[in-house]
Write a structure and sequence with these properties.
182 residues; alpha+beta; Umud Fragment, subunit A; 2 domains; 21% helix
Length: 182
């Protein structure tokens, strides 16, 4: 056997081993991905995240909301509303612990909300539970994406049940798998 043949066989053997390692890495990576992340469809009749967040029917990738998951303003979540065990709903983080809420009711059913330096007009149910003050540690102000169009009664949010404890936050939406829908 010539030196070139032995070198060629060694190269083929190395390439074969590298391929196996790469394939194994891809398989382990896929297993890790599917164990770490969940896939879920936003119900077709759930329009409370539209228009600016997620359209109804979108398939989303989610991660569990443990203490290590970073949450920020605009984070879209799946959570259990306080006082409604077993129910799940989607919402958007509108206020973080330590931020100051200022709510000025302009007229029945409508108010100006300021959280930190962010201001917006939103519709309010008759007996809303948003109160001016500092958001306590471990609590979040969660609102629907359509808070300018609905009072939150059809799909409850913090206007209906107040601040949401961290323990009620179940999953954070990472991305939508149908970015061009809606």
């Amino acid at each position: 056997m010539t030196i070139e043949n032995r070198a060629g066989q060694k190269t083929k053997l190395i390439v074969k081993r590298v391929r196996r390692v790469v394939y194994l890495g891809v398989v382990i990576g896929l297993i890790w991905f599917f164990l770490r992340y969940d896939f879920r469809s936003i119900p077709e009749n759930y329009n409370h995240l539209a228009p600016q967040h997620m359209p109804a029917g979108a398939t989303v990738v989610m991660i569990d909301c443990d203490q290590d998951v970073v949450l920020g303003i605009g984070t879209v979540l799946l959570y259990e509303p306080p006082g409604h065990p077993g129910k799940q709903t989607f919402g958007v983080v509108a206020g973080l612990p330590g931020e100051t809420i200022l709510l000025i009711e302009e007229k029945p059913g409508k108010g100006r909300l300021q959280v930190g330096d962010r201001k917006e007009i939103l519709l309010l149910p008759k007996k809303h539970k948003i109160h001016s003050g500092v958001i306590p540690d471990g609590q979040f102000l969660i609102l629907n994406g359509d808070r300018h169009l609905s009072t939150g009664v059809g799909a409850p949010d913090s206007r209906v049940f107040g601040l949401v404890p961290r323990k009620n936050l179940q999953s954070k939406i990472i991305t939508s798998l149908n970015p061009f829908s809606g």
